[in-house]
Automatic annotation (TrEMBL):
InterPro entries, sorted: AAA+_ATPase (IPR003593), ABC_SmlMolc_Importer (IPR050093), ABC_transporter-like_ATP-bd (IPR003439), ABC_transporter-like_CS (IPR017871), Mo/tungstate-bd_C_term_dom (IPR008995), NA-bd_OB-fold (IPR012340), P-loop_NTPase (IPR027417), PotA-like (IPR005893)
Top-level enzyme category: translocase
Top-level taxonomic group: Bacteria
Source organism: Shinella pollutisoli
Pfam families: ABC_tran (PF00005), TOBE_2 (PF08402)
GO molecular function: ATP binding
Protein name per the record: Spermidine/putrescine import ATP-binding protein PotA
Length: 367
């Protein structure tokens, strides 16, 4: 029996314009106890809808939600052992931090000594001991978000639902909070379902990531699984940057495949799957591509092109290479001090090299 099962969830909205939007289209996810699960996808893909249905603020049109085998149908939001943290943390401005955090306990009828103890614990958990008597306006955005977290954690939910809670914070604060939130989840042992449209955030924080697009689940797996072996082109493009080349398998020698693209290029890849004749898409990550040394290169493992742009981003240079036929490949080149970058200056002719082991293959849509 699963912990929290999202079973074939369907939800459609009727827009004022008279159209129908499938916000959730047959989504099935087995959420594990104590995991940090992230729902990742672009704006409008259905993330908030799914959280609202889990929380009980919205009902599913079809499918079910089961907590430890029991359907949540008809269970109102306040009877579900869940709590939600929103992006706009909505603290009560006239109340102190301690009063904000203790509010839910107060409503639940928890007596003062017990309430104070739990509020103190929650403040300590989020690193805000000693801030009890401040008001929200006297805290930074990051601190306010921590209060919002403490306010939820103090109620000891089985599942904490977090809807883009870090997106209002600046980059440095967001990165700090990512680490804190992940550590917090581990220490409190509560299941977190975290929503973000930011793939880096998802990769950094999650035990598992569920990638959604247009209301449909595209892939679910550990961060490294989703990044290293994307299930389809959508995931390959949305999670990290990918160079995609589509073609057909023309030769197979043991695990070494030759793939011919429509414009006649022959590319090599190593894989256990696929047979001669199969349509495939090669996924090549920018960090797996290099500028080849003169005279270097195994058959099928180089691609010729011309440097279009070299974008210096700090430790690496993002090199955009025109590989012909209107296609641009992006590779990550290690930045070296002073001058060594002539090889990647715009206009330079280069050969991109890669190892056939580093290629991930996915079945081309429609074969
Ligand atoms: N109350 C509503 N009425 C009509 N359409 C809605 C409503 N809420 C959400 N939608 C639509 O459902 C889709 C999913 O929305 P949402 O779950 O908010 O996406 P996300 O949180 O991933 O950005 C979007 O196309 C959105 O416009
Ligand atoms: Mg949303």
């Amino acid at each position: 029996m699963g912990f929290l099962q999202i079973a074939s969830a369907h939800k459609a909205y009727h827009t004022p314009e008279g159209a129908q939007v499938r916000a959730l289209d047959d989504v099935t996810i087995d959420v594990r106890n104590n995991e940090f699960l992230t729902l990742l996808g672009p704006s409008g893909c259905g993330k908030t809808t799914l959280l609202k249905c889990i929380a009980g603020f919205e009902d599913l049109d079809g499918g079910d939600l089961l907590l430890e085998g029991r359907s949540l149908k008809g269970v109102p939001a306040h009877r579900r052992p869940f709590n939600t943290v929103f992006q706009n943390y909505a603290l009560f401005p006239h109340m102190t931090i301690a009063q904000n955090i203790g509010y839910g306990l107060d409503v639940a009828g928890v007596r003062k000594p017990e309430r104070d103890r739990r509020v103190g614990e929650a403040l300590e958990m989020v690193g805000l001991s000693g801030f009890d008597s401040r008001r929200p306006a006297q805290l930074s955005g990051g601190q306010q978000q921590r209060v919002a977290l403490a306010r939820s954690l103090v109620l000891k939910p089985r599942v904490l639902l977090l809807d883009e809670p870090l997106s209002a914070l600046d980059r440095k604060m967001r990165e700090t909070m990512q680490i804190e939130l992940k550590n917090l989840q581990h220490s409190v042992g509560i299941t977190f379902i975290f929503v973000t449209h930011d793939q880096e955030e998802a990769l950094a924080m999650s035990d598992r990531i569920a990638v959604l697009s247009n209301g449909r689940l595209q892939q679910i797996g550990r961060s490294t699984e989703v990044y290293d072996t994307p299930a389809n082109e959508f995931v390959a493009n949305f999670v990290g940057t990918s160079n995609l080349f589509t073609g057909r398998v023309t030769e197979r020698n043991d695990r070494l495949l030759t793939i011919e693209t429509a414009n006649g290029r022959r590319l090599a890849a190593r894989s256990d799957g696929f047979a001669v004749g199969d349509g495939v898409t090669l996924v090549l990550r920018p960090e797996h591509l290099r500028i080849a040394e003169p005279g270097e290169g195994g058959a099928g493992c180089t691609i010729e092109g011309t440097v279009k742009d070299a974008v210096f981003v700090g430790s690496i240079v993002h090199v955009h290479v025109d590989v012909g036929f209107g296609r641009t490949a992006i590779l990550h080149h290690r930045h070296e001090r002073a001058g060594a970058s002539a090889a990647v200056a715009p206009g330079a002719s280069v050969r991109i090299a890669y190892s056939p082991e580093s290629v991930h293959l996915i079945a081309a849509a429609g074969g």
